[in-house]
Amino acid sequence: MNLPTSTDRGQPMVSGDFTTLIDALEYAATCKTGFNFYSSRGDLKSSLSYTDLRDQAVEMAHHLVGICDKGDRVGIAAVTSPDFAILFFACQYAGLVPAPVPLPVTLGGRGSYERQLQRMADTGDFSAMLTPASMENIMSSALNDHDIPVISFESVGDLPRHDDLRPHSPRDLCYIQYSSGSSSSPKGVIGTQATVVANCKAIISSAGLGIVPSDRGVSWLPLYHDMGLIGFMITPMMAQMTVDFLDPSDFTRRPITWLQLIQDNKGTLSFSPTFGYELCVRRWRNDRELDISSWRRAGIGGDMVQPEPLKAFTELFEPFGFKDSVFTPSYGLAETTLAATFAPEGQGLLCDTIDMERYERTGEAIPASELTADENKRTFIACGKVIPDHKLEIRSMDGEIMGRRRVGRVCLKGPSITPGYFRNALATQAAFTDDNWLDTGDLGYWLGDQLVVTGRFKDLILWHGRNIWPQDIEWAAQAAAPSRCGRACSFSMGSGDEKDIILLLECRTRDQQLLGEIHTGVSSAIRLEIGAPVKLILVPRSTMIITSSGKLSRARVREKFLAGNVIDLQADDTIAVIEKKQ
User: Fold this and answer.
1) 11 CB contacts (<8 Å, ≥6 apart)?
2) Among 157, 234, 510, 539, which one is most buried in terms of CB atoms within 10 A?
3) Is the pLDDT of residue 409 over 80?
4) Beta 173-178 vs 534-540: how paired, if at all?
């Protein structure tokens, strides 16, 4: 009978004190813990102890050394399966640099996926692509113009076996992590053995998640994204912790299975972007018993933290043992390996409601008062304190270090920071300041000794001296819209005082009377909330472009709009943009 791996290590826990992933796996292989993979209904499909992971990774490495030179990049389709984990670690023993690539379902159509894969292969100069047999055709089609062999997971073991391995040393690379595709050309973030080990150690520490011997992880996060790969595959292995995996597509279909796994296996650590908690609220049918009281760190990351959906999650699942104090907002990005800040354990959601009118005029995050109009109030969530051995500064556009409640660019320095983007000197130079701090491109401010992130600098809409956040417009629209509406996307066109603010709102109807009612109601709400002219356009479902990590790509939606590839449901025709401001 196939049983899940134990929570109990059977050995003393070692908290990430290793120099390479191989060192960590060699110790983890002496434990009884490992990875478990579940179906959408919560049935165990397969288990992979760290012992088996080590043994099978070593065996596969003997077959991989013959197809590539040491240091070559190998693309691996990041399916949530034992095969991916085995081949990722096989690359570590074979001296190869794995590059996890997303799956077709994440990038909106086969054509879009193939173009994205081609760019990744070009950027990473892949020597081979490893994929499940079921994806071999689409991979081969995408790489048809490249001299890159596509090898199925199932046939790696049929390659000639070589005796000598080339394990990575502490000075070598670990992987190439691709950006989630918010721009047309994905950048390959370099992860070294040193940066990965440093970040994992910080996550394990008491200033991070504070992993203890009784912890058990549960994850549905995709393994091609840093939150899934680092947070729930590599870091748990560094701490010899068992993880129960649910495929991301299965989570989307049956999100409550995530909570069911936490109950069934007494999971203690699990993360999600805000939308994952929101999806659970929408899909809950009160059709089962549930006890998720074992959940001690409910992490939030990967996107802006929205308080309303999280409060709704707490209200719904509190009777089932969930406590709002276990929420753990965090901040990070692939360029810091994964994590940069964590909220302290037990803090929950530290809310800060500020006067947005003053913020937009002065760049100061001043607390709202009784005199602040409701439409000018905005609540942000603190993302915690910077991880050990790292530094974080809030800087002005001119490099001045900003004081408390002054908004500026979030800059980081420390042992987890990437050395740059693979073979992309211009992008690397642009990512760092003159004094070699990583400029994240995010804006934020200090709330005491904790970071509050307010948005991406490149998304900021400057209008008549005001700084308007597109997510404020989007959230206002979604709050006012009926259930027939979905995602929203706001961006600007033009320059200076001639700038137009556009809002696209997805609708699941083509009834013209209903569309008229939606347009009137949402437009009124936006005028009241934003106080700036916003042109609302109702568009069909699936208009928005979502990155592989689940984020809205405003830049690519804007490009799609300007190219005339967006349908206005009320005009029932493709939008003509010939005369629009660009």
Assistant:
1) 27, 30, 31, 32, 240
2) 234
3) yes
4) unpaired
Q: What SS3 state is found at 540?
A: strand
| Residue 230 one-letter amino acid | I
Distance from C-alpha of 488 to C-alpha of 478, rounded to nearest angstrom = 7
DSSP state string for 314-382: HHHHGGGT--GGGEEEEEE-GGGSSEEEEPPTT----EEEEEHHHHHHHSB-PBP-TTS-GGGEEEEEB
- Bridge partners (DSSP) of residue 21 are none
CA dihedral 323, 442, 502, 565 (to 10 degrees): -100
Question: Are the beta carbons of 570 and 515 closer than 8 angstroms?
Answer: yes
Fold of 350-459: Luciferase; domain 3 (2.30.38)
Task: Provide the residue ranges of all domains of the chain, joining segments of one domain with +.
Answer: 350-459, 461-574
For 551-562, what is each residue's pLDDT tens digit? 778 888 888 898
**Can you read off the two tokens belonging to residue 530?**
């934003």
Task: Identify the H or E element spanning 385.
Answer: strand 385-386
pLDDT per residue over 369-395, tens digit each?
999 998 889 999 999 999 999 999 999
**Size of the chain in residues:** 582
Of the pLDDT bands very low, low, confident and very high (cuts 50, 70, 90), residue 524 is confident
Whether the Cβ atoms of residue 37 and residue 245 lie closer than 8 Å to each other: yes
495: phi then psi, degrees, rounded to nearest 5: -145, 160
Question: With bands split at pLDDT 50, 70 and 90, how would you rate the model's confidence at 100?
Answer: very high
Which CATH class name applies to 461-574? Answer: alpha beta
CB 274 within 8 A of CB 282: no
Amino acid at 100: P
Q: Which letter does DSSP use for residue 421 in this model? A: B
Dig out the tokens for 2 from the structure: 């196939």
Taking residue 265's Cβ as centre, other Cβ atoms within 10 Å add up to: 22
Residues 232-281 have pLDDT tens digits of 999 999 999 999 999 999 999 999 999 999 999 999 999 999 989 999 99
Q: What is the DSSP letter of 233?
A: I
Is-same-fold flag (350-459; 461-574)?
A: no
- Are 577 and 563 in contact by the 8 Å Cβ rule? The answer is yes
What are the structure tokens assigned to 406, written together?
Answer: 């002054």
Is residue 270 exposed (0-12), middle (13-18) or buried (19+ Cβ within 10 Å)?
buried
Rounded distance between C-alpha atoms, residue 381 and residue 349, angstroms: 6
d(CA 466, CA 419): 36
- Helix residue spans in 373-503 (DSSP H): 425-431, 470-480
The mean pLDDT of the chain is 90
